[in-house]
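# step 3/5: fold
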Amino acid sequence: MKTKAAKAILEYLGMAVGAIIAAFAIEEFLVPCTILDGGIVGISIIVSTLTGLRLSMLTIIFNIPFLLIGMRSLGRKFIIKSATAMFIFSWALDFFAKLGNATSEYLLAVSFGGVLLGIGVGLVIKFGGCLDGTETVAILLNRKFKLPVGQIVLIFNIIIYTVAGLLFGFERAMYSLLTYFITSKILDIVETGINQAKAAMIITDHADDISRQIYEKLGRTVTIMEGEGLVSGKKVVLYCVLTRFEIMELREIIDNLDTSAFIAISDVSEIIGKHIKKSGMEEEIASASQ
C-alpha cells in the first residue's frame, strides 16, 4: 500500500510540475506575442485576446464539457488526473500572468516557448493525464473509428490556426504552427510521440484476467500466444496495440493483477489490417487478434 501511495504521489507531483512548466511557456512566451497553442488552450487564447477575459478562467470553462464527455469511456483515474492537471495549469496561468514577460521577440518566443511547452505537456501525459480537452475527444474518436489520435489533434489545430490567421494575421498563424511542431517534437522526446501507436508484449501467469481487463477498460483486443522461458518454463504471451494515453492505465491493470509480469513496450510505425473492436460478446477476448 505504501508503494502504491508513493507512486500515486509521484505521479501527481510529476503532472503538477508539467502543468506549471506548460503554463509558464504560454504566459511568458506565447501569449505576449499572440502565438497560439493548439486545442482548447489555443481557443482560450483567441477569446481572451478578443474579450480581455482571464485565460486561466477560459481554459477551465472550455475544458469541462470535454471532461464530462470522456468521463464514462476514458476511465475515472484518467479523468481525475486530467482535471487535477487542468486546475493546476489554470492556477499557474493566473500566477505567471502577473509577472513580466520573458521576451517580446517572436523567434525566441517560438523556440523557447515551444520547447518548454513540449516538456510540460509531455510530463503531464507521461504521468497519466492531459491538459487539453480536444485530446480526450481524439482518444474517443480513435477508439470508435480507429483514426490516429495525432492526426485528429492536428486537424483540430489547423482549424484553430486558420481562424487565428483570419483574426490576427497569417504571420501569427505561421508562428503558431511552427510552435506546434516544435512542441510535438519535444513531446516525442519527453513521452512517446504524438502520432505513434505502441505495442505491448506481456509475459504473465495471469493471461485471462489481464486480457479481460484490457478488453473491458481499454476496449483493446489481445492476441494470446504460448511461450517458454529458458528458466521459467511455460508462459503465456499477450500482445496488443494501444495509444500512448493508454500506457499508464495498462501498467495499472498489470500492477493490480500480476506484479511479476514482464512487459515490453515498443513503437509501432504502421498498422495494416483491421482492429477488432470491443463488442457485447465477452468471449471474443480469447480469440481476437490485432
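# step 4/5: annotate
The chain has two domains: 2-190, 197-287.
# step 5/5: archive (pending)
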